[in-house]
Amino acid sequence: MDIANLTPLESRIRHAFARGEPVDARQDHGAPARPDIVHGPDTTGPPVRAGVLRGLLLSGPEEDGEIPALRLTGATVTGRLDLAYAEIPYLVRLADCDLESTPDLRGARIRALDLRASRMPGLTATALHVEGDLLLADCRVSGPVRLGHARVEGDINAPRLVAHGQVVLEAAQVACALDLEDARLHNPGGHALDAPGLSLGTLLNAGGLNADGKVRLTGTRAGGWISFIEARLHNPGGVALGLSSCEARQLTFRDAEPIKGDVRLHHSTFRAIEAHPSVWPETVRLEGLVYEFLSPRLPAAQRLPLLERDQDGYAPHSYEQLAVTYRGAGEDGEARTVLLAAQRRHRRTLPWPARLWGHVQDVTVGYGFRPARAVTWLLALLLLGVVTYGLHEPPQSDPGKGPQFNAVVYTADLLLPVIDFGQEKAFAPTGAHQWLAALLVAAGWVFATTVAAGVARSLKRQ
Q1: How confident is the model at residue 41 (pLDDT cuts 50, 70, 90)?
Q2: Residue 229: is its pLDDT beyond 50?
């Protein structure tokens, strides 16, 4: 770097760098120094050449007893800041700056990087290694932000980030949190956030996120929460949120807007999911989704429609999982409601003879999940038989032999296929009464098999 060619502002930056002191470029315009700025005005500051900053970071002066650092606020960085594959053992802060070209930080290793409130046409930082925090709060980026395979040993702090292009965090590793609170990611028809294989030590805070385009978090691992509180996810006609094969302690959509576009949650694992049914779109994928708790606490009737909208059709695991959750909360009645709904949903996939038999099981005893129905049907049929055969006693099969006729015992003998009271064989009704006897026998077998099937399912669940 030729010191003789430095502008007065660049010279001031050079001397401040050696001592790690902040420089507010707007002092040259009469503005007060603001070294701790968070979000300044969208005005263009005085120019600083990117080559000068690069020279400082790669071979700048140092002073004994001082820690060098680049702390620049309010400048316009002209030219391209090329730090690809550089080793920079300093803090780099370009706060509230205008970068005319997309900075290139591919493969660079930096102590800490602070770009808060800056404006730039894009950010290329694939495989970037930041030993501390990466700060992008209040940034305005008119193109893509590429952080694929980046490694950040602190946080990625990007609240209120505005990006008009995809934000890429594919296979990135963040030791702590990714903060996208109130960020606005705008890339309709493409990926607003593309972060498959993202690894987070704590949480993903996307509270208040406004995303136009697909949010892909396939394979994400978070030690804490994935939060979309008050978020707006909008990608009609495509996938709005891809969370398949993810793992986190909790997934929350509290007070989020209804999602516009498909949601994929298949083969993911969360300890808890917080979402009102109104959040979910018309098309989802849930096969293999595992969770322990659901909130808010709602009856099964309000959660079952979501399972009906599964893009993969009938998914038995989804019903079993929901039933297990209700059972774990001590709501056995709601669990039975879910399992009954599963049988009805499965019935629609069967050939017509099996569907017909399923309807019989459903109407009679609710596939074994409504045992009270069996008692009602049995009592009704018992009453029908007692009245009918009490008024019209059937003739004996062998006249002069056998027990005395009893309408109650005779009807019970017809209805209960396992028990033999000796009445059924002793009497032989004719005509319409014979058809009634056959109906009672058939009904008894129906109840016996359906109740047995229900008991078997109950024992299997236990």
Answers
A1: very low
A2: yes
User: Helix 8-19 to helix 50-59 angle, to the nearest 10 degrees?
Assistant: 20
How far, rounded to the nearest angstrom, does the alpha carbon of residue 73 sit from its chain's CA centroid? 39
**pLDDT averaged over every residue in the chain:** 88
Q: Which amino acid is at 240?
A: A
**Interval 167-179 mean pLDDT:** 98
Query: Which one has a higher pLDDT value, 39 or 56?
Result: 56
Exposure of 72 by Cβ count < 10 A (0-12 exposed, 13-18 middle, 19+ buried)?
buried
**Full-model pTM:** 0.80
**Tokens for 374?**
């069996």
Tokens of residue 101, six digits: 């070209």
Q: How far is CA 133 from CA 12, 115, 166, in A?
A: 26, 11, 21
Contacts 24+ apart (CB under 8 A), 309-316: 309/280, 309/282, 309/283, 309/284, 310/284, 310/285, 310/286, 311/262, 311/283, 311/284, 311/285, 312/266, 312/285, 312/286, 312/287, 313/349, 314/345, 314/346, 314/348, 314/349, 315/286, 315/287, 316/342, 316/346
Residue with more model confidence, 439 or 277: 277
